[in-house]
Amino acid sequence: MKLPTDIEDKYLKEVLSNFSLEDLPDEQWKLIEGFDSYAISNYGRIKSLERCIINSNGGKWRMADHIKKPRVFKYFNKQLKKDCYTVRCGLALEGKEYGKSIPRLVYYHFVEKFDMTNHKLLISFKDNNQFHVHADNLEKLSVSEIHYKTMKLGRGKKRNFSRTVSQYTVEGTFIASFECMDAAANTLGIDRTNILDVIEKEKFIAGNFRWFLKDYSPTKEDFIPTAKNTSDKIFNKALWKRLGKPEIDENNPPACMNLSLEDLPDEQWKPIPGVGDQFLISNKGRIKRLNIWTTQTKNKLFLRERIVSLLVGFYSEESYYLHTNLYYNRKQVNIRLNRFLYYCFVEEFDLSDRTLGVVNQSDRCGI
């Protein structure tokens, strides 16, 4: 984000927006550890140092000293119920850019060295001005100290961490109860404020778990995140184009192109063999992925129920087959629609036997 122009702040305008190479009063500079092409001052200004640059074509050119423009990111603080800001910079190293917090860099180089990777240690501002990143205005606090400071200033709301809480998996399995949120936090290494945020419905999970007050009995709906953006797409336009744009009603497309979660007339669903209980196939030739939590990323991710878009493969200009790719246990599984339809709704057979073929006697793609 560019430096905001609608905020009346003296430090923002006179220091962070000052790109002159002339030093400010008593300004000191130090090389940034790990990034020898940059220096930082006790004012929080970043200087890109003169150096020779080699471009992708092998050409060389000399980059002169210059003051880098900081980046300001805005976020909404739910406790304070106001917009807050953080001042950052981008530092390049071996062709990659790394985003860094300017207050943390200033504190580390001019006040006291600390573990920069420990994000439980926060840099606070003595005058509570988040643009005032001068070394003399910075202090290092823990999360609890920041919370106490906020409460002392009357800017936060009093939060009750003493209540008994229960821990559940995101799928809804009870794990344990704790006499208070501090006990849960200390046992599992989770910040207690994150647990309370889940209970107060400001977050959905903390430490990849669901949390409730012990005297509350959660329902099935409590384990399904509220949809932020739900798609009303019901038409597989890509498949329609691949099939030569046949004349159809886009508001009521044939089954193979219909992505609506509403069941079609007389539609029946059965589990697809080989992919656990995550996917269903219908007698109309549609495939549905069920609501599921996945662990294929660092944090658990909720995948909402949807109809899977079908793909088309061509034997010839007039002969084709419908299929799709499903992801199960970190592997891609190709589903040939005609084979699985026959297996699930007509007669079971050895799906691994490639000598057995299933012939579609209809030229309609809706079944």
Automatic annotation (TrEMBL):
Gene3D superfamilies: 3.90.75.20, Winged helix-like DNA-binding domain superfamily/Winged helix DNA-binding domain. It comes from Chryseobacterium defluvii. This is NUMOD4 domain-containing protein. Residues 27-67 form the NUMOD4 domain. SUPFAM superfamilies: His-Me finger endonucleases (SSF54060). GO terms for molecular function: hydrolase activity, acting on ester bonds.
